From TrEMBL:
Keyword Repeat assigned: yes
Keywords: Kelch repeat, Repeat
Pfam families noted in UniProt: Kelch_KLHDC2_KLHL20_DRC7
Highest taxon, organism lineage: Eukaryota
Repeat keyword on record: yes
Protein name listed in UniProt: Kelch domain-containing protein 1
Amino acid sequence: MFSLPRPRSIEENEVYLPSDELWIYDMDSGLWTMHLMEGELPTSMSGSCGASINGKLYIFGGFDDKGYSNRLYYVNLRTKTGTYRWKKITNFKGQPPTPRDKLSCWVYKNRLIYFGGYGCRKHNELSDCFDVHDAFWEGQIFWGWHNDVHVFDTTTQTWSQPTIRGGDPPQPRAAHTCAVLGNKGYIFGGRVLFTIIQIFPGKRLCKEPERARKCHEASPIHLSGRKGHLFPNLELELVKEDDDDGDDDDENQLYQESFENRLRSVMWTQFLQQTRMNDLHCLNLDTWTWSGRINISGEKPRDRSWHTLTPIGDDRLFLFGGLSSDNVPLSDGWIHSIATNGWKQLTHLPKSRPRLCLDCIGKNAALLEKQIPRLPSKLLQEVLKKITFWAAMTHRQERKAETERQSQLLST
């Protein structure tokens, strides 16, 4: 782990959580319980990524006062003694991801599949999967966003990095969210780097601006708008100025040059900004092929980070909350249908908190007959009561309607 607590992809109200406490919510009893942890305790971190598989909770990465981490811990949640003991995984095979936080994880076929995150890399670790945010030139350390994929096989305790066989990956990001439907891993939103370049027509330079020249010489970062380079998400802004020499031919020739040469031959400035996204992507976890940005029909959720994405049924995703581009906490809920490729906002959600409508389930039990048995036992009991109530109510209404119909027949 690098011991340089340098630039971060800052989000609001981040805290370091104590690692000696484990809180467990029992969905059957509806109660929270706190357990003191033992073993090799992780340091207090923010932005760590947790995922549960086969009764074990795995924690990877995070950020503390010493910098970013790429350590991996796990705790067995199915202990029979009531003692929960952390264990740091050190006897792994392969190469783990570089240190980072605010990444996401898909659980698929006994594997933890990690994507993205914000962190740091050494000069010799720079690649197309990394958008540079800032750098410490003397130490040759770079900070920025990732869009690489790493796999940890929990059976063999082996790290690997799959070869992506096609498709356009999402822009490097952090504080996004992910979910698995079938063999597809979905990504939505998150925080990214956004670059604006101002070009001053007619203002030629003998050499590149100093900062860009250093970047170009010190690393494989090129002056282009491609993902994973100095200008990942690019917007050009032409600044109009009077041309004293009146050399229109020279200016025309300037704009006929390639984009990269143009940047090297004109006066320009750059502004790096962070923003949040509302794009949806998916990765085939068998073929390692990216979908590219999924074109959504109709309305869609606004930009956000720190939200949740939960699979419901076999072909739908539930999106809730997050932090908007204006740093406003969100409480809206959306359903994405894979079949229709569209988002639909849930208008029944209260503004303060989400709510499960038992009456709605009771009235539509026939439509939800496959999902209802999957509910936790305590919630299932409440649902069955509502189903019984509405079944009886429907039966009474049908008997009343039949009685009225018979009365009308007799009267005629």
